[in-house]
Design a protein that fits this description.
CATH class of the largest domain: Mainly Beta
Helix content: 25-40%
Largest sheet: 7 strands, mixed
Strand content: 15-25%
Number of helices: 12
CATH topology of the largest domain: Jelly Rolls
Strand order of the largest sheet: 9-1-10-3-6-11-12
Number of strands: 13
Distance between the termini: 50 Å
């Protein structure tokens, strides 16, 4: 059989080629205001796709995220999280909701009051080896995808239309179709984020991880906007600053602060190609604070300004959710919807 593409595999292709979904569970939720549910944290990655209406996602340590129809959100580490029609609405554990409102034969869940309708396609997936160690570790806890991005409507709108068509029908086999269509969203979201990570140098080969560095590496990847110091990171690893710096360089191939800069710039590149956020707002989200600071670091790394980078690349809206300094957002667990959020105050 002749290969359609004979080009050499790049790092992103190789990582995506290892992606294996071992189990997937979907339900179609018909929710009317007021409503709210929480999902218990598990090791199963989750996603939510908003088919109609709007809602909010709350995850511990992150700003609340507003989601609209056509948005996808992926919770890569399966953390406990809350979904509701608006902040402050009563919240019930999802397992209790399903127990009291059993799914119909087409896996539809009907719940809530008599107000405005929100429709969510929710799912969970487990990545088999060898993908998790190489892939999940590169992803932030939350990835968001905006299907309304002008650059992707040509391919994403037809897929989204098919999902809505299936949701509107009672045809048998709908769950299998949902699974196939969701694969498109998930693969594109992962590909786009990984492409940005590769440009920032985060996919470069590394030596075997030093297990004692784990807490510090996790902190850098999960909370890159924090103004980390070498002393704080060393404390997380239970080492002196000198020993931590030496072992970090030996394991990762660069200094802790250089690695943090790459993570921040990779996320900034993702924001530029996937949202309409201003460079100033992106600077705040990625720990640079000001347009000038981000622009200087970005041009040094990518050889172009943030504005020129944005103009030269169109992409799927995939970005890490904003981390709060206090980390006090209510947690919740395992349902997901394909959506991309808007946050008050960012322009």
């Amino acid at each position: 059989m002749q290969r359609l593409n004979t080009a050499q595999h790049d790092t992103v292709t190789e990582l995506l080629a290892t992606l294996r979904v071992r189990s997937t569970v979907y339900c179609l939720s018909e929710l009317r205001e007021p409503w709210g549910f929480e999902v218990d944290g598990t090791n199963v990655a989750k996603f939510h796709l908003v088919l109609a209406g709007a809602c909010w996602l709350n995850l511990a340590g992150h700003d609340p995220v507003r989601l609209k129809a056509g948005d996808l959100v992926i919770l890569s580490r399966g953390e406990r999280h809350v979904m509701n029609d608006r902040p402050g609405s009563p919240v019930t554990n999802l397992d209790l909701i399903v127990a009291g409102h059993p799914l119909d034969p087409n896996a539809r869940l009907t719940y809530g009051g008599t107000g405005a309708l929100t429709r969510l396609l929710c799912g969970g997936f487990i990545l088999d080896d060898p993908a998790p160690a190489a892939l999940i570790g590169l992803l932030p806890p939350v990835l968001q995808m905006n299907s309304r991005s002008a650059d992707i409507t040509t391919w994403l709108e037809p897929v989204f239309a098919l999902v809505r068509q299936e949701a509107d029908s009672n045809a048998p086999g709908a769950q299998a179709i949902f699974a196939k269509l969701a694969d498109v969203f998930l693969s594109q979201a992962l590909r786009t984020y990984l492409a940005g990570a590769e440009q920032a140098g985060l996919l470069a080969p590394r030596q075997a991880a030093d297990s004692q560095l784990g807490p510090a590496l996790t902190a850098l990847h999960d909370r890159p906007a924090v103004s980390w110091t070498l002393a704080e990171l060393a404390a997380l690893a239970g080492m002196s600053r000198t020993l931590f710096a030496a072992r970090f360089r030996a394991a990762v191939g660069e200094s802790p602060m250089r690695h943090l800069a790459k993570i921040r710039l990779g996320q900034a590149a993702g924001y530029l190609t996937t949202t309409g956020l201003s460079v100033e707002a992106i600077a705040r989200r990625t720990g640079y604070g000001t347009n000038a600071s981000l622009s200087k670091a970005f041009k040094r790394e990518f050889g172009t300004s943030p504005g020129q980078y944005r103009e030269a690349r169109g992409g799927v809206a995939v970005l890490p959710a904003r981390v709060t300094e206090a980390g006090s957002v209510p947690p919740i667990a395992s349902v997901s919807a394909l959506t991309m959020p808007e946050r008050p105050g960012d322009a």
